[in-house]
Amino acid sequence: MTQQYNQVWDLDSIFPGGSTSSVFQQFLTDLDKELKEFTGELEKTEGTSIQLWADRVEKAQEIGKKVREAGAFISCLSAQNVKDEEAKLLVGQIKQLSSVFSTIMTTIDEKLLSFSEEEWKQFIELENMKAIIFNLNERRNQAKEKLSGDKEKLIQALSVDGYHAWGDFYNTIVGRMTVQMKVGDETKEYSVGQAMNKLNDKNRDVRLHAFEQYEKAWEKESELFANTLNHLAGFRLKTYEARGWDAVLKEPLQINRMKQETLDVMWDTITKNKPDFVGYMGRKAKLLGLDQLHMVDIGAPLSQNVEEVSYDDAAEMIVEQFGQFSPKMTDFAKMAFEKSWIEAESRSGKRPGGFCTSFPISEESRIFMTYDGSASNVATLAHELGHAYHQYVMNDLPQMAQRYAMNVAETASTFAEVVVADATVKNAKTKEAKIQLLDDKLNRSVAFFMNIHSRFLFETRFYEERKKGLVSVQRLNQIMLEAQKEAYCDSLSEYSPHFWASKLHFHITGVPFYNFPYTFGYLFSMGIYAQASEGGEDFEERYIALLRDTGRMEVEELAKKHLNVDITKPKFWQKAIDLIKQDLQAFMELTEN
Q1: In terms of domains, do 34 and 128 share one?
Q2: Which of 284, 490, 518, 582 has a CA-to-CA distance to 235 between 20 and 30 Å?
Q3: How many domains does the chain contain in total?
């Protein structure tokens, strides 16, 4: 049968030739030259006017687009083939260029900080600064809490080999790893990404075998992963200490434009509602003929009759369901499939996981995943398309105003995912199919409420221990197990002690605490979905307006303006969870004996 949509993305339309592209190499050479020239220009401070500094901010935004364009291309190259040696070299190159750009922005921040109140007022009232007033105020306020410009620049320079290099080292180790698994009488080698898909296999014996071998693979390299994690955390903690920051959550909350009280009330409300989800997991265990769920059973199918969804069918379903709420989302998704913006092919050598990255100059996005036909894969595909649509509606904004935080980034993606999942449940033709689809939705909820919570608990506790010195593999395993048991209310028969090693997010250097924003985005999107379900012809435009404000507002202000809710209070979070509980109740009723 002819396949309608290509499962291999088109990168040549961005830069032809892959990791050996001469066009891309020239782009990097030109970018390096431009960065050096602009650095020299910034050193000329004599006689500079407020208008000149505004022009420099504009130029910095344009250069920032180029840095992002290059970084996005390299991330695609290194993900599609972890053994691409040329791509690995390019990763180092872009880290160096990004460091230079960060130094440029520190110089600009220094200038913003040096303005008198009267000069600052004049500066932000200039015509070419009006669209980024929020972002300029944010940068100025954050600069007040950091070290002097020279010291911050030194940190950025040292971070290339003393911080980001540990993240690169993690990727190098993962790239060489294989997972040995028995298939019949044969032993086969799988990439980490392929083995991860086996953890959700229909056959429990396959899942358990995959889990055992997967854990062994990570255990084998655990000493190396303990090194990467310890040194990443050590660099961050020393930086925080130098700045006088005591709380390890200060930076992640600042990055996510979010108050501590918002984070606290979100987790508190979730924890109060966990018993209901423990009840769901108990029912699922019973349906599977188990006393308790093993970690790999949470996402296991309840029915052996669940059909795999072809990539083309998944694409058509997503395109159709997006149209229930937003014709513009439908048109966008169709374009993404038709223009081959998605890398979904199941093959060895790919990085595990999924992501969406955007090219601000080309005004395009690329989505990466490994598609194998499961309901979870359909959800991931919709999720990443939500990310891409979010960027799409912001393409005409200034670069600074496009830089939305991770928590609100997860809003658009999760909204897209929920739209597709909810529609498939409503359209289920049989009771068995409806139960399975509800289960798919609920195990996603368990992921956000329990799995993500365990990551948050682990990372918080690990950082506190790391302040006292290096943390051993054995202790890392122990902290991970304790966090998982607490987050899952001790409801599972077995946990994943090496999850701290296998989860890429713990080793990412781009942002710290790559966990709680997922749960925030999930529940925030449920609030948006509730309003979308109420109808109203203007929903699409209101939704786009919310997305466009995500890069220029604190999340509390964003929620107040566009949803008229106070997210520092439990009421909003409880209402979002109650919406999810409707699925839980339907599942429990359908599965009663």
Answers
A1: yes
A2: 518
A3: 2
